[in-house]
């Protein structure tokens, strides 16, 4: 039996296959003493010694997005934002976000409504404190939100 080279793996992760050609050959020495292999029918080779033509490869887990729980709404009345941590992970470790598919990335922020109307003339210091919401996460990433126009002013996620 003579084997060819393994093909490239059919996938880079998640489980794939490689294949190779297997030949039954008969060896002959030519007149100059060089060994020459001639392909012959497989019935002439010992089947029990036939090498495997396929093997598994790319068995590592594919990177995927993992998302945390949503935070509470950033305001106590009216419309605000809530956020959550979204990380690209592979084999239980955080990896660069570029490795995960951008199109499959879950949202890390979304608008929320408390169901409570805000006062028509908010004059209290309590209310003014909620015009800007700052979220500081345990991994030291920070997000700053503007409540007035429901958009992120600055996103400093690490």
Automatic annotation (TrEMBL):
Query: Quick check: keyword Nucleotidyltransferase in the entry?
Result: no
Keyword presence, Transferase: no
- What SUPFAM superfamilies does the entry give? TSP-1 type 1 repeat
Among the GO molecular function terms of this UniProt record, one is: metalloendopeptidase activity
One cellular component term (GO) for this entry is: extracellular matrix
GO biological process, alphabetically ordered: anatomical structure morphogenesis; extracellular matrix organization; proteolysis
Keyword terms of this UniProt record: Repeat, Secreted, Signal, Zymogen
Give the domain of life.
Eukaryota
| One Pfam family per UniProt | TSP1_ADAMTS
Primary location class: secreted
Intracellular or extracellular location(s): Secreted
Q: Which PANTHER family match?
A: ADAMTS A DISINTEGRIN AND METALLOPROTEASE WITH THROMBOSPONDIN MOTIFS PROTEASE, PAPILIN
> How is this protein named in the record?
ADAM_CR_2 domain-containing protein
Which species expresses this protein natively? Dracunculus medinensis (Guinea worm)
């Amino acid at each position: 039996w003579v084997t060819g080279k393994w093909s490239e793996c059919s996938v880079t992760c998640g489980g794939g296959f490689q294949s190779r050609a297997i030949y039954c050959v008969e060896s002959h020495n030519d007149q100059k003493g060089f060994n020459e292999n001639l392909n012959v029918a497989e019935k002439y080779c010992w089947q029990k010694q036939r090498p495997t033509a396929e093997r598994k490869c790319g068995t590592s887990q594919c990177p995927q997005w993992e998302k945390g729980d949503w935070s509470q709404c950033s305001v106590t009345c009216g419309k605000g934002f809530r956020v959550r941590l979204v990380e690209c992970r592979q084999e239980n470790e955080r990896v660069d976000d570029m490795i995960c598919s951008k199109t499959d990335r879950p949202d890390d922020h979304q608008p929320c409504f408390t169901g409570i109307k805000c006062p028509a003339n908010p004059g209290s210091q309590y209310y003014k404190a909620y015009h800007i919401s700052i979220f500081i996460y345990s991994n030291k990433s920070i997000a700053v939100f503007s409540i007035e126009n429901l958009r992120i002013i600055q996103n400093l996620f690490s």
